[in-house]
Amino acid sequence: MKKHNFSAGPSILAGEVIENTAKAVSDLNGIGLSVMEISHRGKDFQAIMDETVALFKELLDIPDGYQVLFLGGGASMQFCMLPYNLLNKKAAYLETGVWAKKAIKEAQFFGEVDVIASSKDKNFSYIPSNYNIPKDADYFHITTNNTIYGTEIKEDIDSPVPLIADMSSDVFSRPVDVSKYGMIYGGAQKNLGPAGVTFVIIREDLLGKAERPIPTMLNYQTHVDSGSMFNTPPCLPIYTCMETLRWLKKLGGVKKMQELNEAKARLLYDEIDRNELFVGTAAKEDRSLMNICFVMNEQYKELEQEFLTYASSLGMVGLKGHRSVGGFRASTYNALPVESVKALVEAMQEFEKKFKK
């Protein structure tokens, strides 16, 4: 049976990306060696790194003056590494969910943290607005997409201080004006590749301003100077990221991907709003294009597990909502085909026919 993979992460990858990665694991470009066993300092892997960086710059239209890094430790390491390098006195944070809270907690080890707005009062079901960014902050940090709660910041904020964004779960899903950001980072395992590599896009003029000594491995300058190869990088995940970016370019780039993502989301949100059995949990104006969260309408609450079982019988995986919110979460990342969304909509319609009171 064909599987419809709605998992929040690690998540779906395009079929040809998996196939090409599998070939490289067996034999990279006919050289008789696996991509997992070649030297990261040899010409074969250097070509992979160079192409991956070039595709990042091309597809996101990254201007001059920025560096693209590939590091270990996940986005969670960046919660610490970012303030280690950039927070001297005070940083501003927008609190929009669990990952923003974790980032705030780590930053507090390094200086004053001003949480300028939060949606905690309504269980992070909306994106705060009408806040003021302090001009004396070293930077302003946002989490653009909140996987657990299904909210998303879909525009590039104008900030009087360097804007830092965790884009782990929506990078490459829409065009981004990188020039408005001081730094963009994220784990690969939601929209880019497998777990194990973290990308960092950082503006060069932010480097070298820390008023504290920084351990070598936690210093961005270390990785800029060594082309992300100060130590052995996560070679296989980087290769898969390259294949994903090749696939994305072939499809038409991020503008085309935005069109496809908006169409998928519209299809599912329309059904949630129409169907008597289900209700969306995020504020409509802040609904995510990547993680569509919904629950059973109160009078049908007892049918939640039954719907999950039914969907599973149709080959749908990863639909169970995060334990902190319950219900359902359909992650509609770039690689998820529209056919999977149509299958979910049909399942919801059939379930409604059977149980509608």
Report on the structure:
The protein has 357 residues and is of the alpha/beta class. The protein is 35% helix and 17% strand. The strands form 4 sheets. A 7-stranded mixed β-sheet has the order 2-10-9-8-5-3-4, with helices on both faces. α2 packs across α6 and α7 runs parallel beside α9. The radius of gyration is 21 Å and the shape is globular. The relative contact order is 0.16. The model has no long low-confidence stretch (mean pLDDT 97).
Write out key terms for the chains shown:
3-stranded antiparallel sheet; 9 helices; alpha/beta; Aspartate Aminotransferase, domain 1; 35% helix; 357 residues; Aspartate Aminotransferase, domain 2; 7-stranded mixed sheet; 17% strand; 2 domains
In the CATH scheme, the class of the largest domain would be Alpha Beta
Quick one: overall form?
globular
Rounded mean pLDDT score: 97
CATH architecture type of the largest domain: 3-Layer(aba) Sandwich
Strands, total number = 14
How would you name the CATH homologous superfamily of the largest domain?
Type I PLP-dependent aspartate aminotransferase-like (Major domain)
Percentage of residues in DSSP E strands: 15-25%
Q: Let me know the largest β-sheet.
A: 7 strands, mixed
What's the helical proportion of residues? 25-40%
Tally the helices: what do you get?
Answer: 9
Q: What is the rounded Rg?
A: 21 Å
Given as residue ranges, the uncertain stretches (5+ residues, pLDDT < 50) are none
Structural class: alpha/beta
Enter the CATH topology name of the largest domain.
Aspartate Aminotransferase, domain 2
Total domains: 2
Order of helices and strands: EHHEHEHEEEEEEEHHHEEHEEH
End-to-end CA span: 32 Å
Which strands sit side by side, in order, in the main sheet?
2-10-9-8-5-3-4
